[in-house]
Design a protein that fits this description.
The complex is a heterodimer of chains A (about 80) and B (about 725). Chain A is α+β, with helices and mostly antiparallel strands and about 80 residues long. Chain A has two helices and six strands. The longest helix of chain A is centred in the middle third of the chain and has 8 residues. The model of chain B has no long low-confidence stretch (mean pLDDT about 80). The chains are: A alpha+beta (about 80), B alpha/beta (about 725).
């Protein structure tokens, strides 16, 4: 099932399918390993509901839902 | 002549008469990979910190000697890649291209190797001679990860040295590898192949570049081609040839059609594909990646329910500790300066009015002492912050606070500089360097002074007990701090809506694993920031204290309204055994004080105070407050001492009851509150403005900050005073 990353719930894992966003920040995300095929796990949301904490390639990354919405993920 | 050949000649030329080789080594790596620890291990005390020209990026260099080779080591800024997203990355990239270091050591965090290798692949494309330092290998081992160093090295095309930086292990092996690599002088073979389609396009563009003029010779053609396909705007700007740019554009379109993804995605994808492949072959995980200690801690610390309470609790703890633990040392310093003042005064014969003595004792020692007294508080605050930062907690704090910051239009990362601002604005403004987005960085810089800094504390400590009953005191102080915070938030919103309009910055940040801060690290970080505060004291405050002393001492009045000399002489010669001897002394003291007050009104400072009255009156201030504010304008630290001089209360500090009672007699609580408000909102000191200028690289923003804060202070204080007077609040 393909969803956008902002819809993924804490604890769910998936593989990145497409990076739809353009612009500097998405270039940055690509460099940090959010590439098609990357295994990604949604760990939790911050207490105020945003941003989200993700785990990929052995480290933890924070990302706001706004940006996460532009990344398509296939749930495992 | 190729890069390799010219470098070989360079290396040969570097052999000095003593037989020492001299090489240049650059340290690159991700943030949090332990690069700085390794730099410190290599260079020890032989370090120097400066700036890269034209940008506010720190340049750290040091020297090191190993087996007959002398190395100049440059610690490049920590970066995730060499795409020029920020000044840090531009600096790192330009250094590698322009300075052509003999060896580039890439410090890799073994626990998350894949992401760390991304930078290495980009360096390979720049033909940089690489040595890979596999740092934190103890942590990786503890997680059950095993590396086949030989195979990994073969696959990546560079020597790999396992290291444990924080235990200084692997350092000499690293130096061996560096020396060996420098001797080789063979550029790393481009290890990453990008797949047929991409390689085809790269070849085409490379050819065009190679055919082009010499201007592009500095850069490896293949690297340029790849950068163009990645859409690197900085590189695009450096290429004159429309033909090349057009060809790159067409290639990118072609690739998107064929592969179904944008070319930048394909490039990143291929890089990681290469990295993953190498890692899968050469690395084995014997233990399933379980929840490690960091994850467990985070389950509590960034918990939906517990996270924020823990955060506020920690902040509260930090402030309480800063003030309670800081009290005893403050007392010692006060005594020290008091003793110093007396010792210096004793150099002159008793009672002789010497200008130099007054300058030294009142001006210099008094002024500077008043600032140094707060050093313990400042140091403790910075120590607490460095513990929170080094342990990794600050990243979690930024993560949790981000949503609030976002609402203001700022960034989770703005939080730490603002926190530092409660200690001193000067290092706080420096700390904004971590904010990549220029507009957000500027906004944060401009509102930091509204975080009530340490210099204003003596003002509150003087005024609050003088005017407000015991139960009101703590709430009053809290009100002041909160007012500052609210104003900062409103100010930030306003700036982001008008002058610094821009998209709210995205928040992408790594959450590094928790670790126990090293003593050395804590000490260094605390010292770096505290030193700025001290330096300010030693230079600016000193200078201002001297100037103020001059303004408040001259011109000297010789003809008084009353003949004080005669009256005092009369009282002194009256019968000493008189029972009213005590009140005689009191009267003499009062006469002295009255004379000093008249003298003051005559001096430059006094006259300026009088001159400012039209501006002061709407705020409820009189010329005396104006005089004190003149000095405070330049640095809030001097306000209390100045008030003491104005009310001719000998050496005044914020503990001074006599000053307090005189103030209470002269002003209403409303006026007192207005004084504090004005001091809160107006610029804390000239050092802050100077730092803003330095960090923003222009006078425009510094002056805007100064003007804006002053205007806001005036308007707000006037409003509060006028409304308060109308409603007769606190005018009793």
């Amino acid at each position: 099932m393909t969803v956008n990353l902002n819809e993924v719930r804490p604890g769910q894992q998936g593989l990145v399918e497409r990076v739809n966003g353009t612009g500097q920040i998405f270039k940055r995300l690509l460099e940090m390993g959010v590439t098609p095929g990357a295994h990604i796990e949604m760990r939790r949301l911050a207490p105020l509901g945003d941003p989200m904490e993700l785990r990929l390639r052995g480290y933890h990354l924070t990302l706001r839902k706004e940006e996460a919405a532009k990344i398509a993920v296939t749930l495992l | 002549m190729s890069l390799a050949e010219s470098s070989t000649i360079q290396a040969a030329e570097m052999v000095t008469a003593a037989g020492l080789r001299h090489i240049k080594v650059a340290l690159a790596g991700n943030p949090n990979a332990g690069k700085t620890t390794i730099f410190n291990n290599l260079t020890g005390m032989r370090q120097h910190v400066g700036n890269y020209p034209g940008v506010t990026v720190e340049k750290k260099t040091g020297t090191c000697r190993h087996e007959g080779t002398r190395m100049e080591v440059v610690d490049l800024p920590g970066t995730y890649s060499l795409t020029a997203h920020s000044a840090d990355e531009m600096v790192a990239r330009d250094f590698i291209i322009n300075e052509k270091p003999d060896v580039v050591v890439v410090v890799l965090d073994a626990s998350n190797l894949e992401r760390n290798l991304y930078l290495a692949t980009q360096l390979m494309e720049l033909n940089a001679p690489l040595v890979l330092a596999l740092n934190m290998s103890d942590l990786a081992k503890a997680r059950g990860v095993e590396f086949d160093i030989g195979q990994l090295s073969e696959l990546l095309g560079a020597p790999i040295v396992p290291m444990i930086g924080h235990r200084n292990q692997g350092t000499s092996e690293l130096l061996d590898a560096v020396v060996a690599k420098a001797a080789q002088k063979r550029p790393a073979r481009a290890a990453v192949r990008y797949g047929e389609d991409l390689e085809g396009e790269i070849a085409g563009i490379s050819q065009l570049i190679a055919n082009d003029g010499a201007q592009l010779r500095r850069y490896p053609a293949r690297w340029l081609a790849i950068k163009l396909l990645e859409g690197d705007t900085d590189v695009e700007g450096r290429i004159d040839s429309q033909e090349i740019l057009a060809a790159a554009g067409k290639s990118a379109e072609h690739l998107e059609t064929v592969c179904g993804q944008r070319s930048e995605v394909i490039v990143a994808d291929q890089r990681y594909g290469f990295i993953s492949g190498a890692c899968t072959e050469a690395i084995r995980s014997t233990v399933e990646a379980r929840h490690n200690m960091s994850d467990k801690i985070d389950t509590v610390v960034t918990n939906r329910v517990l996270g924020l309470p823990i955060f506020f609790g920690l902040m509260y703890l930090v402030f309480v500790l800063t003030f309670t633990l800081g009290d005893p040392p403050m007392g010692w310093i006060e005594s020290l300066f008091g003793w110093l003042g007396e010792a210096v005064a004793a150099l002159w014969p008793m009672g002789s009015p010497s200008a130099l003595k007054s300058l030294l004792v009142d001006g210099v020692i008094g002024g500077v002492g008043g600032v140094i007294v707060f050093l313990p508080n400042i140091v403790l605050l910075f120590l607490a912050i460095s513990i929170l930062e080094d342990s990794g907690y600050m990243a979690r704090a930024a993560f949790m606070i981000d949503r609030l910051m976002h609402k203001i239009g700022l960034h989770g990362k703005s939080f730490i500089p603002m926190l530092i601002g409660f200690g001193c604005s000067v290092p706080a403004i420096m700390a904004t360097r971590t904010i990549e987005n220029t507009k957000d960085r500027l906004t944060t810089m401009l509102v930091i002074p509204l975080m009530s800094c340490g210099a204003r504390l003596p003002i509150y400590a003087l005024i609050i007990p003088a005017f407000f009953p015991h139960t009101w005191q703590a709430p009053m102080l809290l009100t002041i701090y909160v007012t500052g915070l609210i104003l900062a938030i409103c100010g930030a919103k306003l700036l982001k809506a008008t002058l610094l309009k821009g998209d709210a910055p995205p928040f992408v940040m790594e959450l590094p694993p928790y670790r126990v801060p090293t003593l050395k690290g804590m000490f260094l970080h605390t010292w770096e920031r505290s030193w700025l505060y001290l330096k300010k004291a030693g230079t600016i405050i000193l200078g201002i204290s001297i100037i103020l002393w001059g303004l408040t001492s001259y011109p000297k009045k010789t003809a008084f309204d009353r003949d004080y000399e005669a009256e005092i002489a009369q009282l002194e010669s009256s019968d000493q055994s008189d029972a009213k001897a005590g009140s005689v002394e009191e009267t003499i003291a009062e006469l002295e004080q009255a004379r000093q007050a008249e003298e003051l009104a005559y001096t430059s400072a006094g006259r300026i105070g009088h001159g400012l009255e039209p501006v002061l009156k709407p705020m409820g201030f009189d010329w005396k407050i104006g005089t004190a504010l003149i000095g405070a304008f330049a640095a809030k630290e001097v306000f209390v001492a100045q008030m003491g001089i104005v009310y001719s209360v000998g050496e005044a500090d914020e503990e001074s009851d006599s000053l307090r009672s005189r103030l209470a007699q002269s002003y209403t609580p409303l006026q007192a509150f207005c004084i504090m408000l004005f001091c809160l909102v107006s610029a804390p000191c000239m050092a802050t403005i100077a730092m803003t200028k330095r960090e923003s690289n222009s006078w425009k923003w510094a002056l805007l900050q100064f003007g804006g804060l002053t205007a806001l202070a005036f308007l707000l204080t006037t409003a509060v005073y006028q409304v308060g007077s109308l409603l007769t609040i606190g005018t009793g």
